[in-house]
Amino acid sequence: MTSSAPGGDQPPSVELRATVNPGARIEVTDEAVLIREGDHIVRLAGGRLPAFTEALLTALADGQPLNVGQPDPERRAALNAVLNQLAEAGLLQLDDAATDLEQARGAAVGLWLRALHEIPLRTIDQRLGEGVCTVLGSGTLVQRLVAGLRGENITVVAARDPDAVPVTDDPERDVVVAVGRDENDPLLTEWNTCALESGRTWLAVFPFDGRRAIVGPWILPGASACLTCFQVRRAAAFPDRPLTDDLLAARPVATSGDRGAVYPGITTMQVGIVMERILEWFGLTSTHAGLATPGGLHTLDAGREGLQLAKHRVLRVPRCPTCSTAQGVGYPMVWSHPLPAIQLPSHTQELEQEAGA
User: Can you tell which superkingdom this protein's organism belongs to (predicted)?
Assistant: First the structure.
């Protein structure tokens, strides 16, 4: 709230800084105001409150401060009480909160609403400006991912091979999105090794293969399944069991064609899922980022019943040849040899003693 005096002895006019909560949907009846945010509804009843709310929202539509003229102290107190009530109900943001809402990028506002205002909007907006996302790979899907993230003012680096991925001082935050032709793409296999060595957080993405498109797994080296774990578990789950060994040993052959360009609608949906994951990871961190489950994976299936989006989780393979620290180590024994310094009587010694007696 600000005051300005035009001159003379006239009392100052009052300007109110208020912004409508973009996540709220407002409806009125003759007797009440309904403020809806998802499935949550707040009902405010009052004689002239519905008409006042409609007039207030109309006045705030242009985004300018609300000039309420020169009210006397009693009316100003009554106005402040009503505005505070509307703010507590989730309809308005006032003063500094209103300024933050106007200046923040749209993605930050969405994350702030998703986190139920538990993280300050200014903090989320700052985090989005600090994170760096590297998109590794080539093709239409990569191009659209880069364009989409840059459209939200996210710092993005495009890389065609692992050597082009820039080094970072925060390998956990600065995520790499690696787009492969399929789960056996040598590019992803090479990057999986690099990520395990550097501790770099990364997300695997596979274009639509005629049956499904895959976003994931979300890989936190040392804390989640790696790409090899995903390959082993996917091959083991293949219904034709005699082919399991072949699937694990198979080497991909370079093919022409860009599946991201052939299925533009599904590619758009994949881009949206990836963007939500990256924005949430940067803005909310692992504490509030529900999409950043270690090993989390989304599949987008296209079949006779239409499109189906499903969430899965890939667990680590206990003796994964790539990421397991137990690889090559023998199984624990259920017994142990006695220490050399401790002499235990044997059955032979007992017989010798009895014979001597």
Answer: Bacteria
